[in-house]
Design brief:
Layout: E1 6-8, E2 18-27, E3 34-43, E4 50-51, H1 54-65, H2 67-70, E5 77-80
Parallel strand pairs: 3-5
Antiparallel strand pairs: 1-2, 2-3, 3-4
The structure holds zinc ion.
Length: 82
C-alpha cells in the first residue's frame, strides 16, 4: 500500500517537499452542480501556496466535458479524478 500523501517539487517556488493532498471540489451550482472527488492539490510549506497543476486542471476540464458519460448516479453527480 502506497501512502496517500506524497511530496513533489513546488511549481511556484521550485523547492522540494510540497505536499500533495487529495480534495473534493464542487463546480457550478444548483442543478448544474458537479462534485469531483480525489483531486490532487499541491500545498507548499515554503511559499504557502495551494494549487492544482496545469495537468490536473486539464484533467478536470476533461472530466467536466465527459460528465454525462462518467458520472455515477447520485443526488449530486460525483466524479473521481482517477
Ligand atoms: Zn512553493
Amino acid at each position: 500500500m502506497k501512502n496517500e500523501e506524497s511530496t513533489t517539487v513546488c511549481d511556484i517556488c521550485g523547492q522540494p517537499g510540497a505536499r500533495v493532498r487529495h480534495v473534493s471540489e464542487a463546480h457550478g451550482s444548483g442543478a448544474d452542480m458537479l462534485v469531483i472527488d480525489h483531486i490532487p492539490m499541491v500545498s507548499c510549506p515554503h511559499c504557502g501556496e495551494s494549487y492544482f497543476t496545469a495537468e490536473t486542471l486539464r484533467e478536470i476540464e476533461n472530466l467536466k466535458r465527459n460528465r454525462h458519460s462518467l458520472a455515477v448516479e447520485r443526488p449530486v453527480e460525483v466524479l473521481s479524478y482517477h
